[in-house]
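In response to the reviewer comment on reproducibility (Comment 2.3), we provide here a single inverse folding case reported in full, input and output, so that an independent group could reproduce the run without further information from us. The structure tokens appear first.
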């Protein structure tokens, strides 16, 4: 409940109390720290085994700004062709080195897709050349709409939590939040226009 919905620990405590389960918010926090990463790891492992055999496996890469104690950080996220988030990472900078680190980490865990769609940020192109993936990169207007839509659940959760205090806590939360939301709340991909479908088909050939 804490991960699936934008609730605080006290909200979960009150909801369980209404159902006759008397616990403290510290118990909810302990369960989250203990079992959240385990559940997320199992969900991610099962999904990778299915997606690696998919013939039209595509990634959409995008980043958003997140503040930790008033300092701006960058949350890099990968969204696949089913609008689910396989991987995410938090960095202090938005340059070629940060994108290259995230790209290598994602490819190591998730294998290599057919097409990687990004916006026109220069660090994406530089990182793609570094890993010899420049031929698979796709950029264009509306192509990365799927990634923009996928930010909405995290933005709602961020507003409910008010702020993040530590980078490692944010990194841990986004990894578990993405996997659990993928599993419990499968998102319906936005309707694709004929032009959008044509562009993706051209990139995948």
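Designed residues, in position order:
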């Amino acid at each position: 409940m804490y991960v699936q919905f934008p609730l605080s620990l006290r909200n979960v405590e009150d909801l369980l109390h209404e159902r006759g389960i008397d616990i403290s918010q510290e118990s909810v926090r302990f369960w989250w720290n203990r079992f959240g990463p385990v559940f997320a790891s199992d969900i991610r492992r099962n999904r990778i085994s299915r997606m690696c055999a998919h013939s039209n496996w595509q990634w959409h890469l995008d980043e958003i700004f997140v503040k930790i104690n008033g300092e701006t950080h960058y949350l890099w996220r990968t969204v696949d062709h089913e609008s689910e988030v396989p991987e995410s990472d938090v960095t202090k900078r938005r340059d070629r080195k940060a994108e290259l680190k995230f790209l290598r980490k994602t490819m190591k865990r998730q294998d290599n897709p057919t097409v990687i769609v990004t916006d026109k940020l220069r660090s994406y192109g530089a990182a793609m050349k570094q890993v010899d993936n420049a031929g698979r990169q796709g950029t264009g207007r509306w192509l990365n709409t799927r990634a923009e839509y996928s930010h909405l659940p995290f933005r709602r959760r961020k507003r409910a939590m008010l702020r993040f205090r530590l980078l490692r806590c944010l990194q841990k939360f986004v990894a578990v939040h993405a996997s659990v939301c993928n599993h419990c709340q499968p998102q319906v991909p936005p309707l694709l226009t004929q032009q959008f479908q044509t562009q993706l088909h051209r990139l995948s050939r």
